[in-house]
Write a structure and sequence with these properties.
The structure is a homotetramer. With about 200 residues, chain A is an all-alpha fold. Chain A is built from 9 helices and no strands.
């Protein structure tokens, strides 16, 4: 089986997920300050999720880059990841509509945890399928510290939101997202330098 | 005519169908237990349909894999399949909203039956077009027992939901979906072993 | 400029248009006959539009098949076609919601007319760009009688809906759609026979 | 990293954005003149945004045409552009629903400004990455005057809408859109003539 249709389907689903969230940004009735105010938490929530789906898309891209053929196990692990991510618009809208209520932020954190685990499962399935190919396993090992750290942050965000402050959990999400955006650039530069040598 | 655009269009439609269903998961007003409770049947209904669309995507992938060129008959049989599948979000949402009411579960079963028949028609059209190509007809014959069993389960689900228990019909749907996920892996392993020989 | 991205974008837009219409099929409250009855006109309206978008997709496929490169004029003529078609879900939903009211059926007919004209413009722009290429112009000339007949039917459907009977106009739409599905198969067979010679 | 998935993902997101806007065209209750009247501003708003997203798609196409490989910086600059554009359906719907109210038109102008800046950032990142490749930098420099003029028009549209007349700002948007559609054809013709020499 060729990977191109898997990529095309995943790209389609991710593109729809990332765009569908905007439908939760309900158009306010009128333009008064009072009508516009509920927009802010919804917009913040949307931006956060846009960045997360963006990170998943980039990482998905990287993960499948070295893979040549896909089998049923990879296909279904990929489906699991897409399923987890498809719940993000719902959690995003709910978190925004309740203005970062502690319960919805905890649920959002739990969903990010599930998405992270789904990605780990997909990576593990690919690793197992291509266990002889060191270039793939090396690339996967490289992002392991970030994966573990993110997982810890997601787990921490749940009690923090419930018992301390939901905005602190939101801050954890922002830190995780920044962590995934920045270093990938650093790694790439290192790779490019290596290429030049 | 080339099959690549048919695949791209089908992937697009399937990606939208699978993602659009999440829009039926209405964001609850508030976070009270009472507000959240109607979510459960909707979520279960969504998971079930996600798996079914996923199965159709995988099988569609397999079906078109060996096909090289498409004609008008294949195109329109494919359209019929996409049309049937496009009704799944509606049936899913309805079944979820009525908490697996016996009538909506029966309608869901009838729709799965229609989708199954549409797939069979598409397979038959491809088979007829490529009647000389034994590799295609062989692959189609292999999944015949599963197709027949699924059809029987779908047919049975309608009276069972109406006169016995809708949850029993839902169980039949789960059995069918598991049947399609698991064995495809088994077949694949067998194929891989053959390749190694 | 390469045509592959134009095709991919058009496929994406058409896939979304064809699937988005299902969102107009509002999930009924409950399962009583009274709740379900408004579904029928909406479902009929949806089926009709699904077939029309399907026809446009197939014809768009044929039209671009022989084209190798696209210029700005082709791109924007294509945009005009996509824009016209993007209004179909709206007209479909309106016609369904008003149970084939004479005004909405007339508007639907007018929209089909606009879509047809947009397609003719796109075909004309392609024809002009590739005026030396007889294979393209020949293919376009072949579907001319059908285009003219469809246009006449669309024009007729407007006064017929307003002053005679909207269902008669709906019948005209069905005749047009059947006309485009059936003969394309006939032409293809003729082409295949030619190929064999 | 290959650019094909970046293009496919961007095409997907743009196709969804351009089509999702139509969902804001709420189906009127009935067919009376009174029910239909609120449609006009919504339709005008939709047409304007359709053209703008179309322009971005064409320019995105041109921009990535000469690029061979993408790095993380290009990916994230592209994400920023897609994010800005994903807010267009919201601003479009709001502007239409308030019948071109001065505040919503000013917000629409501000959003177009943000989209324009995001595109400039993407172009700058590509330029920096491929600073040695004169064919890319030349192509980017060619559209600079239009970019600057558009930016000025967007900036002007904000105070004009707030303090003079929102319809005047809408006129500025129309002028910008026409400016981007027409000359691209002129440039192309010039390019084609060059090719013939």
């Amino acid at each position: 089986m060729n990977k191109s249709r898997l990529e095309a389907f995943s790209d389609g689903v991710l593109a729809i997920i990332i765009t569908i969230m905007i439908l939760e940004l309900k158009i306010p009735e009128g333009t008064s300050l009072q009508a516009v105010r509920p927009l802010w938490p919804a917009l913040c929530s949307y931006i956060l999720s846009f960045v997360f789906i963006g990170i998943y898309w980039v990482n998905h891209h990287h993960l499948l880059h070295t893979v040549k053929k896909v089998n049923g196990a990879i296909m279904w692990a990929n489906m699991l990841l897409l399923f987890s991510l498809s719940l993000v618009p719902f959690a995003t809208g709910w978190m925004g509509a309740t203005r970062f209520d502690k319960i919805t932020v905890a649920i959002y954190g739990a969903l990010l945890l599930i998405c992270g685990l789904s990605f780990t499962i997909l990576a593990a399935v690919i690793k197992k399928t291509y266990s002889q190919d060191t270039s793939i396993t090396d690339a996967l090992n490289k992002s392991k510290p970030k994966s573990i750290l993110s997982t810890l942050f997601y787990i921490a965000s749940i009690p923090i939101s419930l018992f301390v402050n939901p905005l602190l959990s939101a801050l954890l999400f922002v830190i995780v997202s920044v962590m995934w955006i920045i270093p990938s650039k650093a790694i790439e530069k290192a790779l490019m330098e290596q290429d030049e040598k």
